[in-house]
Amino acid sequence: MTDIVLFHSVYGLRPATLAQADRLRAAGHRVVTPDLYGEPPVDTVEAGFALFDKIGLDEVLRRGRAALAPLPPETVLAGWSMGAGVAGALLAERPHAAALLLLHGTGGDPATVRRGLPVQLHLADPDEYEPSDEVDEWRRAMTGAGAGVQVFRYPGAGHFFTEPDVPDHDPRAAELTWERALAFLAALPTPSAG
Q1: To 10 degrees, the CA torsion angle through 187, 23, 40, 47?
Q2: Tens digits of per-residue pLDDT, 78-128?
Q3: Are 79 and 86 in contact (CB under 8 A)?
Q4: For the chain, what is the domain count?
């Protein structure tokens, strides 16, 4: 069993996030889904960015830290899009994180990555928010810092292809993403007790 914190996208804490958390729980993991906004989720990316701007990055990160505080040091940091960025930003403060699972966005500063950190990234191809050259540069930097990076690209999918209630949803790509993510999590070493 793995502890996982799953950070939501710019849309806020939507039913899709909660449903995927349940899917991870059904696979035997303990999952926390913090609400980084403290407000109802929104229906458009534009409204999400407006809400994010209103709350501010510092407050979003503070809420992320607060959610992580009671969790074991080996907790997997995971997130969707903006949430992937939050997971990556908090990695510097969680050096013993078991892994970094990123959906729809890169995250993690290579300067803070420990050697051997398992990282899995799932992206649309192309992705309007994650240009290929920037993703390739991120991958080289993370690998150069010693992380074990897997990048999966999904041709023809839209940015939020795993979210069933948005126009970008691609059921085949979403299912493949979750199959790969579950296999990735299942392969992580079990944290030692005590």
Answers
A1: 60
A2: 999 999 999 999 999 999 999 999 999 999 888 889 999 999 999 999 999
A3: yes
A4: 1
pLDDT digits (tens, 9 = 90+) for 23-60: 999 999 999 999 999 999 999 999 999 999 999 999 99
As given in the structure block, the two tokens for residue 59 are 């407050």
Instruction: Look at residue 194 and tell me if it is in a domain.
Output: no
Query: Does the residue 97 lie in any domain?
Result: yes
Structural domain includes residue 59:
yes
**Is 119:151 a contact under the CB 8 Å cutoff?**
no
CA distance 102 to 85: 8
Please say whether the beta carbons of 70 and 90 come within 8 A: no
Count the residues in the chain: 194
pTM score over 0.90 = yes
89: domain CATH number is 3.40.50.1820
Structure token digits, residue 1:
């069993």
**Cα–Cα separations (whole angstroms), residue 151 to 45, 136, 177, 181:** 24, 9, 11, 11
Asked if 32 contacts 67 with a C-beta cutoff of 8 angstroms, the reply is yes
- What sign results for the dihedral spanned by CA atoms 58, 60, 63, 65? negative
Strand partners, 102: 79, 121
Q: Which residue range is the domain that position 88 belongs to?
A: 3-186
Structure tokens at 151: 């990048």
What one-character DSSP code corresponds to residue 130? S
In the chain, the N- to C-terminal Cα span, in Å, equals 15
